[in-house]
Amino acid sequence: MKKIGIIGAGNMGGAIAQALSSENDWQVSIFDPDSAKTESLHGCRLASSMEELVQSEDLLLLAVKPQVLPSLYPILRKAGSEKKRWISIAAGVSLETLIENLGTEEVVRFMPNLAAQVRQSVTAVTPSLKASASLKETALLVAELFGSAFTLPEDQIAAFTGISGSAIAYVFQFFHALAMGGVAEGLPYPQALAIARDTCLSAAALQKRDSANPVALATMVCSAGGTTIEGMKALANGNFDATVMAAVTASSAKFRLLEEKAKQSGKQL
Q1: Which residues are within 8 A (CB) of 227 and not within 5 positions of it... i.e. 6 or more apart?
Q2: What pLDDT does residue 39 have?
Q3: Is the dihedral of CA 142, 147, 151, 156 positive or negative?
Q4: pLDDT at res. 268
Q5: CATH number of this structure's domain 166-238
Q6: How far apart are CA 134 and CA 94, in angstroms?
Q7: Residue by residue, what is the 3-state secondary structure of 92-130?
Q8: pLDDT at 259
Q9: What are the residue ranges in the chain where pLDDT is below 70?
């Protein structure tokens, strides 16, 4: 039986707790000072305090807001954080900061996205340079229980944020834009949105099956003088590719800026 303790039962912490507790070989313990957040979590042991949770578990996941962490470090250290293994989903909190404040190199950063709520997150997994092979393996296993996981060095987390952590919002916006186009052509919005969503899912499934070049797949749909090539021309005229790329680089740049400000000020995001 694998065991994990989770500190924080907000949207992300709660989603991860539910994903893990639904697995027969995982025992999940959780603590949140707001008991209302833990009451709805089924299959989890509710720890009586943060100290008790840290003392009783070997593997712990920090699922609290980054700005809260500085006030927790003294409590965690007093409870023996230096003897534990840690996973953190606190955005912008560097491995260096975590190692310094937890007192151990046994640390891994996660960067999940909102789809963790439906066990479809795309998560960056970034272990410290001196993390044990056992922790790296366990962290990857944990991430894969609520979606797909990609091991990345810390200097690539900003890029990952641009194409996943933030980009899930761009995909939602694309759903909406497609649906509004359907409305302009006479479809009711709910139906148009459902069609747009399922079309995007079908495109993703097809590309994932064969790992095909997306440009090649798009070309397959574009018959000479047909309807699709007219739409593709409209996207090109609107600088679709360049706009999407600009959104990715803007999000990545903002992430780097905020992380740098946090380091300079001695505070976390």
Answers
A1: none
A2: 84
A3: negative
A4: 44
A5: 1.10.3730.10
A6: 21
A7: CCCHHHHHHHHCCCCEEEEECCHHHHHCCEEEEEEECCC
A8: 81
A9: 262-269
Q: pTM of the prediction?
A: 0.90
Query: How far apart, in whole angstroms, are the C-alpha atoms of residue 102 and residue 134?
Result: 19
2-151 is classed CATH 3.40.50.720: yes
Pairing of strands 44-46, 26-31: parallel
Q: Do 28 and 43 meet the contact criterion of CB atoms below 8 Å apart?
A: yes
Residue for token digits 């900061």?
97
Q: What are phi and psi of 244, to 5 degrees?
A: -65, -45
Say how far apart CA 165 and CA 156 lie, in whole Å. Answer: 13
Burial of 154 (0-12, 13-18, 19+ CB in 10 A): middle
Residues 251/81, Cβ–Cβ less than 8 Å: no
Residue 86 DSSP symbol: E
Write down the domain spans for the chain: 2-151, 166-238
